[in-house]
Specification:
The protein is of the alpha/beta class. Helix content is 39%, strand content 22%.
């Protein structure tokens, strides 16, 4: 585990299973239908049970770069924030902007719902093919910038699946240097 302090908030990196997090909300790397899929999305829908899917059906989808919130169902987290990242093509089809927006709109939802802790996966780096290092830079920078102006969110945890993902995020965070904080 790696922790850094940003203002009054803590940013953490852990390797693990996002469905087991006891944060106020976990973020789902969702697709535009919000009806479940593979990877993180499928795992969250399975662990959250039918209530999550039922609420997603009522929402009716979500555009790329945005996020929607539902109850957590059977999860430890009270809420699931469903964020839709971009499918990576070549980095020149607004992918960085859309990935930034997915993180920012997730954090905006957390703030609006008075949530103090949020756990994120690495959005877009699975089936959507976003290069891990580029995605980590966007994710960590977006969260850092948000936390500087939103001390109501006390903890953001990146829950990374596998040692490779964890090491990439750790390297990106360490390379940022102390002036980054």
């Amino acid at each position: 585990m790696m922790k850094v302090t940003i203002g009054r908030s803590i940013l953490e990196l852990v390797e693990g299973d996002i469905t087991l997090q006891d944060t106020d909300a976990i973020v789902n790397a969702a697709n535009t239908t919000l009806l479940g899929g593979g990877g993180v999305d499928g795992a969250i829908h399975r662990a959250g049970g039918p209530q999550v899917l039922e609420e997603c059906r009522k929402i009716g989808g979500c555009p790329t770069g945005e996020a929607r919130i539902t109850a957590g169902g059977c999860l430890k987290a009270r809420y699931v924030i469903h964020a839709v990242g971009p499918v990576y093509k070549d980095g020149r089809h607004r992918e960085p902007e859309l990935l930034t927006d997915a993180y920012r709109t997730s954090l905006d939802l957390a703030s609006r719902h008075k949530l103090e802790s949020v756990a994120f996966p690495s959005i877009g780096t699975g089936a959507y093919g976003y290069p891990m290092e580029a995605a980590a830079r966007i994710a960590l920078t977006t969260v850092r910038e948000y936390l500087k102006g939103h001390p109501e969110i006390r903890r953001v945890r990146f829950v990374l699946f596998g040692e490779t993902a964890y090491k990439v995020y750790e390297r990106v965070l360490q390379s940022a240097g102390p002036e980054w904080l």
